[in-house]
Fold this protein.
Amino acid sequence: RGESDCISVSCCGRGSQRKHLVLVVLIHAMFVRCFLRRVGGVAKNIRRPNNRYSTEGPQSVQRSQDVAVDNGNVVMDNGDVTVRDVPPELMPVVTGLTSKPRRIPYWYMYDKKGSEIYEEVVTTSKTYLNWRKELSVLQSHSDDIAAKTSSPVTLMELGSGASSKTRLVIQALLRRHGTLTFIPVDVSKDHIEEVGEQLERDYSGLSVQPFGGLYMEGIRHLSCLQEPRMLLFLGGSFGNIPLDEQLGMMKEIRTQLTATDRFVMGLDMNHNRESLLAAYGKQWTANVKDNAISRLNKDFDGDMDAEKFELITDFVKNPTEGDTPSYVVGHWKSLAAQSANFRKLGLTLDFRSGEKFFFTDGPNWSCKWSLHQVRRLAERSGFAVEDYWTSEEADY
């Protein structure tokens, strides 16, 4: 998160009536919880071939090994493994463990402990500078952002975590309107409930209503409210959404917003390979590898050894004049031929030396944008860039 570009936009409404909407894009880099949603009472990764953003969907989790859900149980097609008593919210994790290549959903890393590790890294790192850069931009422009809203306004933040930088926006909105309802959205509800209680102690006039869930669940909840709304998606978190799902997500967000609403995004514009590899290097091991493996072992009674995997990152550069952003990639590499047993699942995973295990839902860990690509994304999803602020280096 860092000093960022702010982009405001206008958009056309349905039919012949033109509506105007502001999209403020704080350009910088950060992490995001995987874009998932619940379908038919079972949490499903939205990486499905069809109907990814519809409200209806199939009642089975499709995997490379054709694993189906039957009354809460998971049955593999070859009959070797039957998994019972898996909580619905963990079904996407089982999906990833039994897929090829193996993976976990991105949001799985962000339980309470993972969120705390994340906050420590981004606020103290000497090479990951996005948090401080975005903080600087918000210090300079929070009042400009607040000026985009009318009273009364409800503020929602996706992937809110500790809401540390969001305090600047909260303060600006309280200065402008006197009172404010804040809805933080995060998969770690325990964490945001603690944060919300502290925020209410710190700011009179603020009411915090934590929403534990996935991004689009929160946005659909927001769409039920009548008063004007501001939606925040800071920290470059949108860049963690799988490349092939970003446009669809933006379009669905657009359908949930009205002419009185405002949408604020943060996107990273840094394309320097050396600095990116330093920023996304070993310092993230505790967050994206060690804590995730510890959680797997806890949730599924496993014996997976985090020390036998290594975090590997790389950078994929795409033309800045094209529609596809550049992006950082990441995975765990198995350091030896080994096995991991998950007794609760009755599942043994055999890893080859050098085999990759992914903690992202698409090829991208974190996308890096050009202003052209941001404008194109906005246009293709029903928005239009209207205004923006950038860092001094123009890389956030």
About this structure: The radius of gyration is 21 Å. The mean pLDDT is 81. Residues 210 and 220 are 14 Å apart (CA to CA).
